[in-house]
Amino acid sequence: MSIDLAPERSGSTTVERGSSGSAGAGTAVERGPAAYAAPGGTARPPLSPNALRRIVRDLAERPERWLHRVRLSAENRWYERLELAEDYEVWVISWLPGQSTGFHDHGGSRGAFTVALGELEELALAGPEHGLTVRRLSAGSERAFGPQYLHDVRNTAQGPAVTLHAYSPPLSEMSHYELRVGGLVKTSTEGAEQW
Ligand SMILES: [Fe+2]
């Protein structure tokens, strides 16, 4: 499957929040079902990217709620779910130098994340005229995005990083992509039971 190099829709945003180390999360695309069937059959609309950004921002400002949970793994990025609600979930992820996600989507979920500690780099396709966008995400940076967003996040810095993520609805699957001439090509999909 090929993905057109379409511009990011609905404004993905990056916010630098000074050098305090406090963080939050960012915004972008709208697609997919306006509502989904929550457990029990109740349809709840997903939270907006901005609402998810507020969740991770507030959490980043309360390190006592997550800092003691953080671990580092030389094998792969380390991650743990901090919260699971009907309509969203929250994860903490640690990144050692060199660790990265590769290009991936979020299975139709909206999302937001913030760099709570350290710094990362995000690659995203910004359209045929703009090509690949590379953003440095220092501590305090926020990103938020809609359901069609694809990106590759990597730690190209010298030290570890910690990020806080919120997704709505909770992630059900993620697909991975390779960047080839002409665009991104889907190479695999994993379900929630695989992480
Ligand atoms: Fe992601």
From TrEMBL:
<keyword id="KW-0560">Oxidoreductase</keyword>
<comment type="similarity">
    <text>Belongs to the cysteine dioxygenase family.</text>
</comment>
<keyword id="KW-0479">Metal-binding</keyword>
<dbReference type="InterPro" id="IPR011051">
    <property type="entry name" value="RmlC_Cupin_sf"/>
</dbReference>
<feature type="compositionally biased region" description="Low complexity">
    <location>
        <begin position="18"/>
        <end position="45"/>
    </location>
</feature>
<keyword id="KW-0408">Iron</keyword>
<dbReference type="GO" id="GO:0008198">
    <property type="term" value="F:ferrous iron binding"/>
</dbReference>
<dbReference type="GO" id="GO:0017172">
    <property type="term" value="F:cysteine dioxygenase activity"/>
</dbReference>
<dbReference type="InterPro" id="IPR010300">
    <property type="entry name" value="CDO_1"/>
</dbReference>
<feature type="binding site">
    <location>
        <position position="106"/>
    </location>
    <ligand>
        <name>Fe cation</name>
    </ligand>
</feature>
<feature type="binding site">
    <location>
        <position position="104"/>
    </location>
    <ligand>
        <name>Fe cation</name>
    </ligand>
</feature>
<dbReference type="Pfam" id="PF05995">
    <property type="entry name" value="CDO_I"/>
</dbReference>
<keyword id="KW-0223">Dioxygenase</keyword>
<dbReference type="InterPro" id="IPR014710">
    <property type="entry name" value="RmlC-like_jellyroll"/>
</dbReference>
<feature type="binding site">
    <location>
        <position position="151"/>
    </location>
    <ligand>
        <name>Fe cation</name>
    </ligand>
</feature>
<feature type="region of interest" description="Disordered">
    <location>
        <begin position="1"/>
        <end position="49"/>
    </location>
</feature>
<protein>
    <submittedName>
        <fullName>Putative cysteine dioxygenase</fullName>
        <ecNumber>1.13.11.20</ecNumber>
    </submittedName>
</protein>
